[in-house]
Amino acid sequence: MQGLLILMFGLLTVLGCATAQDGPAASAPAAPPESATVAIGDATYSVDLAISPEERQQGLSGREFMPQDAGMLFVFEDEQVRHFWMKEMRFPLDIIWIDAQCRLLAVAADVPTPPPDAANDEIPRVQSPSPARYVLEVNAGEAARNGLQPGDAVEFRGAIAGQHGC
């Protein structure tokens, strides 16, 4: 009988230790970092940010692909007519021009990639039709698929909510 009591006490001690380790003192796994998103109408895009001049110059150049519902948000300090090109791009894009009031200005749809051997002066440029503060690049066809239109409200969410003006 005494052996059974010792065995039961040992079992309760082990169970008690397991419960204590799983309680509030245990550290939970770190939450993944919150992603930056841009919402336009019913569409939401997870975005990489291009804020510094170096990031804006690099953009999406050299990437092999971009997942659907993803994009790159270019953030500028001021609002002016913007000029973009597709240097070293490997997939076509929709380029979405956004003004400082967080409204979609226009979409340059299905901007094609240049031939791999194109000289810099042969790569077509696209330009915003009026001053833009932000530029969102998404996969070609996304704007049409989601029915994005000039005048649509743009909102920055997630890790960039309340930052950069939108």
In short:
This protein has 166 residues and is α+β, with helices and mostly antiparallel strands. The protein contains three helices and nine strands; from the N terminus they run H-E-E-H-E-E-E-E-E-E-H-E. Strand 1 and strand 2 form a beta hairpin.
Biggest β-sheet: count, sense, barrel? 7 strands, mixed
- The SS-based structural class is alpha+beta
Strand order of the largest sheet: 6-5-8-3-2-1-9
End-to-end CA span: 73 Å
Mean pLDDT figure: 84
User: Number of helical segments?
Assistant: 3
Looking at the structure, what is the overall shape?
A: globular
Q: Estimate the helix proportion, in percent.
A: 10-25%
Number of strands: 9
* Secondary-structure element string: HEEHEEEEEEHE
Give unreliable regions as ranges: 1-28
Query: C-alpha Rg, in Å?
Result: 25 Å
In percent terms, what proportion of residues is strand? 25-35%
What is the assembly state of the chains in this entry?
single chain
